[in-house]
Design goal:
Number of strands: 0
Structural class: mainly alpha
Oligomer: single chain
Shape: globular
Helix content: 55-70%
Strand content: under 5%
Radius of gyration: 10 Å
């Protein structure tokens, strides 16, 4: 089953946020953001930080 982060990306667009903003606010790496962009899995801890 493929993972979709489209809801998060849409929310970021609506709030005029860039991926860089997300990495700075949450302290997650750009590699994690890249994985999300490719639809790959990320850790539950990262998802909790985003929520």
């Amino acid at each position: 089953m493929a993972i979709s982060y489209n809801g998060l990306l849409k929310l970021m667009i609506d709030k005029n946020m860039y991926k860089k903003d997300l990495t700075e606010k949450l302290g997650i790496s750009s590699a994690t953001i890249a994985k999300m962009g490719k639809g790959e899995t990320v850790s539950v801890e990262v998802l909790q930080n985003i929520c």
